[in-house]
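Lab manual, section 2.4: Encoding a predicted structure.

Procedure: take the sequence of the chain (160 residues), apply the prediction step described in section 2.3, and record the output as C-alpha cells. A sample record is shown.
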Amino acid sequence: MQHAISLAARAEALGEVPVGAVLVLGDEVVGEGWNQVVTSHDPSAHAEVMALRQAGARLGNYRLLDTRLYVTLEPCVMCAGALVHARIGTLIYGASDAKTGAVASVFPVLQDPHHNHRVEVVGGVLAEACSQQLSDFFRRRRAEHKAAKLAARQAPDSVS
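Recorded output:
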C-alpha cells in the first residue's frame, strides 16, 4: 500500500486526484497506475484501470488471475466492474469513498451474486494515510479556487 500511496502522490503532482494502484502477482509488481483522467483527457484513466492495462500488456492476458490489487481509495463502479472482468483475486484498498465507493460504501458491486467471479476484499489498509492524502489535496484545491475567486473580484475592471 505504501507504493500505491507514492503513486497517488505522482497523480497529485500532475494535478490529478491522488489515487494510486499496484497490482501484484506472487511477490512481483505486474502493473501500477495513478489517476490520469485530466492529463490524458480519458474518463477511464483511473489508477486501477491504468494498473490493469499495464499488467494485461505485460502478462499478455486480460485475465489477471491470482493477483492482488492495492489501491488507495475504494474503487468506483467502473473500476469494480473492471476488477470482476479481469478476474482479480483480491482487492486491498485504503480509504472508503462515501460518495461513489462501489465495494462497501455506496454500491456493493463486488458482492452481487450475478457475477461469474468473486473478488476477495480487504478494506481499510492504511486508511488514515490514504484518507489524509485525499483530504489534504481537496483542502488545497478549495483554497486555490477561493483565492482565485477573490483575486478575480479584486482585479480592476479592464472593460470601460
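Check your result against the sample. The mean pLDDT is 95.
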